[in-house]
Amino acid sequence: MGNAEAAAAKITVDPVFIVGPVRRRTFGAFVEHLGRCVYTGIFEPDHAQADEDGFRKDVLELTRELGVSTVRYPGGNFVSGYRWEDGVGPVENRPARLDLAWHSTDPNLVGVDEFMKWSAKAGVEPMMAVNLGTRGTQEAVDLLEYCNIDGGTARSDERRKNGAEDGYGIKMWCLGNEMDGPWQIGHKKAPEYARLATETGRAMRMVDSDLELVVCGSSSPGMDTFGEWERVVLSESYEVVDLISAHQYFEDFGDLQEHLSAGHRMDAFIKDIVAHIDHVKSVKKSTKQVNISFDEWNVWHMSRAESKAPGGKDWPVAPVLLEDRYTVADAVVVGDLLITLLRNTDRVHSASLAQLVNVIAPIMTEPGGRSWKQTSFHPFALTSRYASGTVLNLAVESPLVSSEKTKDFAALSAVATFNEETGEAVVFAVNRSIEQDLSLDVALAALGNVKVVEALSYSNKDPYWQATADDSTSVVPVANGSVKLDAGRLTAELPATSWTMIRLNLA
Ligand code: AHR
């Protein structure tokens, strides 16, 4: 804090102006068979904290504290070469397989049944992906039968024999992963994928009419095919699917101001996808509304050494991969991305932070050792815990900032939620300027008589501070003492590069 010349920003909060509900599914995450996310992440049978099924209790506890709602599984790029049958039945009979996506070996100690057990313990909703890279409709339907049919058929009875009496009733299914990407095993051109996804989705609905299906959208806004991919895929699948996926990662290439524009860029991506969806809807004269599953998002320093997969004859089990260490600035970006997802709750109906443990993750573990929270854990956990009710449409007045690449974006990113039942209103705000503090003025007379319950900010003199296993607690969100409330007007100082949460309650 402490920039003498703070700039002024203003928001007006009025509970009459609603974007849509706060959806629990906005707070999803992702567990992929990648690096140490599964093995020595959620699962480590010989760890002192392992439970009777081999799951790390410390990780389960942190997952609950993070407030994760849905968890996508088992990939990611991994799923496009995955044979789900390898991961069910007696563990001693399961084959070790090459994982081509991450040049690793998967011992198949964890499969669908283990993941479902873990989901129940973590209290999360599973979101399953089928392999449309090397496999097709039949294998997807077989997996669905295994998971969701109660019994009396070959696949469902196999599941019962493996210990799960009742069908799992998994609702959300991804029709493949990033099939637009040339790196994807079984990568397809848009018309090929459109046909396969549509027919697979149709057959899956014949097994269980109650599914919510996610068709693959673009892997990033930077794909040459972005837009046209959405048009072609949705033109074929529109009436069969409920959601189209969006993936986007943000990297700090050394220009911090550019990094802090991430929320602005995500917002633009969402608006573009909405335009593509609605174009197809309009051309089809459809009354159905397809929405967005933003099922991979995060800061990922993809070009750094951490993301280099093994090569040659080296096919390790659970290698150290994508173990990015996050800074306070990265956490501010994560907080802003979550604000952006909430602000678009009318069209973003589900989202998954990629990923949950060790792999570009808010939770880290040492094999056989400690677990700890990265910086990004804090804004996610607090937003998940306190955002509730409806997302309000704010009137925002903000100065603009520019980076070398991205010009004139709002310094203030904000959203407010209001829960009519509990009388709690929460303002989440990010100051994206790396140089200037913001004096925030919140007009909230329309809420009625409110009092401040809590105001927390997350920032640091050194925005590059990172948590480690030895010190994950010396920089955490702390009370923002500048908050003042007087006659329907709240004021707060938002330090440069900061995330803030202000909780209010009807007095
Ligand atoms: O989350 C890491 C990888 O990013 C996923 O496997 C893939 O879907 C995306 O490219």
Please give a structural write-up.
- The protein is an alpha/beta fold and 507 residues long.
- It folds into two domains: 130 residues, Sandwich (Immunoglobulin-like), CATH 2.60.40; 364 residues, Alpha-Beta Barrel (TIM Barrel).
- It contains ten helices and 26 strands.
- The chain has an eight-stranded parallel beta barrel, surrounded by six helices.
- α3 packs parallel to α5, α6 crosses α8 and α8 runs parallel beside α9.
- Alpha-L-arabinofuranose binds next to loops.
The secondary structure category is: alpha/beta
Which word captures the global form? globular
Largest sheet: 8 strands, parallel, barrel
Supply Rg.
Answer: 23 Å
What ligands can be seen in this structure? alpha-L-arabinofuranose
CATH architecture of the largest domain: Alpha-Beta Barrel
Mean pLDDT: 97
Give the proportion of residues in helices.
10-25%
Uncertain segments are none
How many domains make up the 3D coordinates?
2
What is the percentage of strand-forming residues? Answer: 25-35%
CATH class of the largest domain: Alpha Beta
Strand order of the largest sheet: 3-4-7-8-9-10-11-12
Q: Mind telling me the CATH superfamily name of the largest domain?
A: Glycosidases
Write a brief structural summary.
The chain has 507 residues and is an alpha/beta fold. The chain is 24% helix and 25% strand.
Question: Any chance you could write out the topology, listing elements then pairs?
Answer:
Elements lengths: L6 E6 L5 E4 L6 E3 L26 H10 L3 E4 L23 E3 L4 E3 L5 H11 L2 E6 L6 H12 L5 H8 L10 E4 L14 H18 L4 E4 L12 H10 L5 E8 L5 H4 L2 H23 L6 E9 L28 H16 L4 E6 L9 E3 L5 E3 L3 H10 L3 E3 L2 E3 L2 E2 L7 E2 L1 E8 L4 E8 L6 E6 L6 E9 L19 E2 L4 E3 L2 E6 L3 E9 L1
Parallel strand pairs: 1-21, 3-4, 3-12, 4-7, 7-8, 8-9, 9-10, 10-11, 11-12
Antiparallel strand pairs: 1-16, 2-15, 5-6, 13-14, 15-19, 17-18, 19-20, 20-26, 21-25, 22-23, 22-26, 24-25
The structure holds alpha-L-arabinofuranose.
The site of alpha-L-arabinofuranose has 11 residues, from loops.
